[in-house]
Amino acid sequence: MRTLEAAPQRFRLELTCTADPVAYDLPLTLVTSVPAAWKEAVVEQGGQRRTVTARNGVIRFDAKPGVIDISSSTSMSVR
């Protein structure tokens, strides 16, 4: 996993996997640090959006290889 972009209210990650996608196509559970002030985060990947709860500056979510956008749920309401 690598960080493509990082800003105070959002960041973008890229998850890669060398496993054969024919044999292994299950999502991975990621545990990711976010700013401590975040109460919720919006995770977007592959056209799907979900809100996850942040606890002690950490979020947990399932993801497949590809680009993952994560933003503070409060920044989403401003858009």
Helix-strand blueprint:
Elements lengths: L1 E5 L3 E6 L12 E6 L6 E6 L2 E6 L4 E6 L2 E7 H4 L3
Q: How does this model look, in words?
A:
- The mean pLDDT is 91.
- 5% of the residues lie in helices and 53% in strands.
- It is mainly beta and 79 residues long.
- It is elongated and about 40 Å long.
Key terms for this structure?
5-stranded antiparallel β-sheet; mainly beta; elongated; 79 residues; two-stranded antiparallel ribbon; 1 helix
Care to give the gist of this entry?
This protein is 5% helix and 53% strand. It is mainly beta and 79 residues long.
Distance between the termini: 27 Å
Element-level helix/strand string: EEEEEEEH
Largest sheet: 5 strands, antiparallel
| Beta strands, count | 7
Low-confidence blocks of residues: none
Over the alpha carbons, how many angstroms does the gyration radius reach? 13 Å
Shape: elongated
Q: How large a portion of the residues is in β-strands, by DSSP E?
A: over 45%
- For the largest sheet, list the strands in their spatial order: 1-2-7-4-5
The class by helix and strand makeup works out as mainly beta
